[in-house]
User: What shape does this take?
Amino acid sequence: MSKLKKFTWLLGLIVLCIFAILTWYKIHYSMDIAEPFTVTVPQAKYKLLIATQGSAYKNAVLKGLISAAKKTQNVTRGN
Assistant: This one.
């Protein structure tokens, strides 16, 4: 095999490995699609916007915030 052919095969293999690693990374670490919803407090003085990307940790934090708000005020959740 010539040096150029070996180099071409090696370069192709490296590109294929990089593509496979990037695909695995995107599948493994990408965020879920977050469902939009509204939490309303009729007598609230202020409004709060919370943006999330849908990871398990962020969903748990969001549930904690909503439950804490429900304990302190009359909160309803709607879409």
User: Anything to note?
Assistant: The chain has two helices and two strands. The radius of gyration is 24 Å. Residues 31 and 55 are 6 Å apart (CA to CA).
